[in-house]
Design brief:
The complex is a heterodimer of chains A (309) and B (352). Chain A has 11 helices and no strands. Chain A has 309 residues and is mostly helical. In chain A, α4 crosses α10. The radius of gyration of chain A is 24 Å and the shape is flat. The termini of chain B are far apart. Chain B is an alpha/beta fold and 352 residues long. Chain B contains 13 helices and 12 strands. Chain B folds into 2 domains: 224 residues, P-loop containing nucleotide triphosphate hydrolases (Rossmann fold, 3-Layer(aba) Sandwich); 86 residues, no CATH class. The chains are: A mainly alpha (309), B alpha/beta (352). At the A-B interface, α8 and α9 of A face α2 and α4 of B.
Chain lengths: 309, 352
């Protein structure tokens, strides 16, 4: 077990280097020049531009820029922005707590309701409630997130006035509820469907018949015998979804004006701020890798037949 | 540590019959399955009784309805598609089919327990065997987790699993096939039920282990004076442990007999066919007898006697009239207790 975790952590190093390099290169081939953008509409001064480039190390060959960046990362330095010359780390520590909060709220929402609907539909398969859940989840899956976001903002925010249409204080949990529901709704639908399929399949297993023959109450049969056997595919999905929720927040945060990582990333892309983009994506990659490791370890907790060597 | 009073677990002695009511009586039971291809009539009027301490072996090919009958008794049929249009299942004189779900649930496991064929798939793979055994005590007797575990160890010792204390937290996949089947047996025995239904308990095991498991089962049954319904297609298994046999074909009982009577002189051509198809050492080198044809499709059971297309003795009457279960008599006319045959020509079969 310990050795398995150590090996997995070591494997993260090449993945980490590979992904950061890829993002670094991609940002560099983006059209547009961030230094020239500092002059706005006015024609840039070539001599000034050369000085700024030299200050930021942008005149060096690409591989050297990347090595410098990696070296900085190892010391916890994510670099500085071109415009305003602010440390990237400061901007990220402002934005990440907001997005993590939003992401966790969305995650809880999809986990609790998704599992609930999935188990309900799986146990009552073929009944009205099963069809209801199938239709509902199909609807959620087919509606694009921005439509769902804009419509719910209009209905619940502007017309009904239940919540403020725009988030004014991004650290206020109450204001984040609606964005979190919008963000988590698509995953909720997938979790519900996965759970339903898995439950329906395992409900026909021999050990379920044994559980009934033992005279156990229905509630115990479902919670102790059925659910645990059905959770593995759902846990796999939930693990990858932690990363997806962070990245998927770009649209939702934009609609509701949440000052999170999505917004920051979007603005950085618009201004060609390479260091911010690479920094954020690097953290995403780390979250993603750790979530996957956690999922793999959870398998062994759920199913004792899975062992790590 | 809680100590468990050893004498408390012992069952009070049970008499063979309380006031003439058998422990279990199945009366004219019908079970059908509604499928896309039509209605499959899996059980078509089965009658049998089991008393305390008695072993009834139900014999038959796959699809003869022997397992479905057991599932109907246990109340674990999938309904729908299954349906019980007719019949009664009396447990100590009370019709279980008329009971509420909650009443039936309380009988399951406590009064009637079942042993399944394949213990690997019938045990939950993600729960420890100690948990699965202890669950019986926790649910039905309200014991604490700790007490239940102690009881589980005791049960494992009762079915002679070595090092029970160390193995109680192991999972089903960590046991061998024979040990797993012992755990299944232990689970069925947990609450000292009055009746155990064993659905092909040894089919998934290799021959040496088969004998051990059957001996254990028979021994425990004697010890606790339980009724046992042993469902099998293995004639060898039956001979040693059963008191009486019911042979099933296409959802009906075609012959009933005390165990040794049946082997000595079968009164139904199907039973005779089954007995003739057992490989025998003294017939080495000869071609093995086989009953020709296949069991009938349950959605289209032949008219008359269901066995007629495969029967070497079939005549016109067999294709038109369904034979009832005749009382079998000696040549002189004296009834043979407990013997019945659903064949128009039972006389010729047994005496001819």
């Amino acid at each position: 077990m310990g050795r398995y975790v150590a090996r997995r952590l070591l494997q993260m190093i090449p993945v980490f280097i590979g992904t950061t390099l890829l993002i670094f290169l991609m940002v560099n081939v983006l059209p547009g020049d961030p230094v020239a953008a500092l002059w706005g509409d006015k024609p840039p001064d070539p001599a000034q531009m050369a000085i700024i480039r030299k200050d930021l190390g942008l005149d060096l060959p690409l591989w050297q820029q990347y090595l410098n960046y990696l070296g900085g990362l190892l010391q916890g330095d994510f670099g500085t922005t071109i415009a305003g010359n602010r440390p990237v780390l400061d901007q990220m520590t402002d934005a990440f707590p907001v997005s993590i909060r939003l992401g966790l709220m969305a995650f809880t929402f999809e986990l609790v309701l998704g599992l609930f609907f999935g188990v309900l539909a799986g146990v009552k398969r073929g009944k009205v409630i099963d069809t209801g859940v199938t239709v509902f989840t199909l609807m959620v899956i087919s509606i694009p997130v921005f439509v769902l976001g804009l419509v719910s903002q209009q209905v619940f925010g502007t017309q009904l006035g239940w919540v403020s249409p725009n988030v004014k204080d991004s650290m206020d949990m109450a204001q984040l509820v609606l964005p979190a529901i919008v963000l988590g709704s698509l995953s909720l639908a997938y979790v519900a469907r996965l759970t339903r399929t898995s439950i329906a399949e395992n409900a026909r297993a021999d050990y379920m018949r044994t559980a009934v023959a033992k005279g156990l109450p229905q509630r115990r049969i479902v919670s102790m015998h059925l659910l645990r056997n059905s959770l593995i595919p759902v846990v796999t999905y939930l693990g990858t979804d932690i990363g997806a929720l962070m990245a998927g927040a770009v649209v939702t945060e934009g609609i509701f004006n949440v000052q999170g990582v999505g917004q920051l990333l979007f603005e950085a892309l618009a201004r060609r701020e390479g260091s911010i983009i690479v920094g954020i994506v690097t953290v995403f990659v780390l979250i993603y890798l750790l979530a996957n490791l956690l999922v793999d370890l959870l398998y062994a907790v759920l199913d004792p037949r899975i062992r790590y060597a | 540590m809680t100590t468990i009073d050893k004498t408390a677990g012992l069952p009070e002695p049970r008499s063979g019959r309380d006031g003439g009511t058998p422990l279990l009586e199945v009366r004219d039971l019908h079970v059908e399955f509604h499928t896309r291809d039509g209605v499959a009539k899996a059980v078509n009027g089965v009658n049998y009784t089991v008393d305390a301490g008695e072993t009834l072996a139900v014999l038959g090919e796959s699809g003869s309805g022997k397992s479905v009958t057991a599932q109907a008794i246990m109340g674990i049929l999938d309904m729908p598609p299954g349906k019980i249009p007719q019949g009664e299942i009396l447990f100590r004189g009370e019709d279980m089919l008329a009971m509420s779900n909650e009443e039936r649930r309380k009988i399951r496991g406590q009064k009637i327990a079942m042993i399944f064929q394949d213990a690997l798939s019938a045990l939950n793979p993600v729960l420890s065997v100690g948990y699965q055994l202890g669950e019986m005590f926790r649910v039905h007797q309200g014991l604490s987790k700790k007490q239940a575990k102690a009881k589980a160890v005791e049960l494992m010792e009762r079915v002679r699993i070595p090092a029970a204390k160390e193995r109680v937290n192991d999972y089903p996949h960590q046991f061998s096939g024979g040990m797993r089947q012992r755990i299944m047996i232990a689970m069925a025995l947990a609450l000292d039920p009055d009746l155990i239904i064993a659905d092909e308990p040894t089919t998934a095991l290799d021959v040496t282990v088969q004998a051990q498991v059957m001996d254990l089962l028979a021994e425990l049954q004697q010890e606790f004076n339980m009724g046992l319904i042993l469902i099998t297609h293995d004639l060898g298994v039956v001979a040693d442990v059963a008191d009486k046999i019911a042979v099933m074909y296409a959802g009906r009982i075609v012959e009933t007999a005390p165990v040794h009577e049946l082997y000595k002189r079968p009164a139904h051509p199907y039973t005779r066919g089954l007995l003739d198809s057992i490989p025998r050492l003294d017939q080495k080198g000869q071609e093995l007898y086989a009953i020709k044809g296949l069991p009938p499709n349950l959605t289209r059971i032949p008219t008359g006697c269901a066995f007629n297309p495969r029967c070497p003795k079939a005549e016109d009457i067999c294709r038109t009239e369904t034979p009832v279960l005749h009382q079998v008599t000696e040549q002189g006319g004296g009834e043979i207790a407990g013997r019945g045959s659903a064949c128009h020509f039972w006389k010729e079969t047994i005496h001819g």
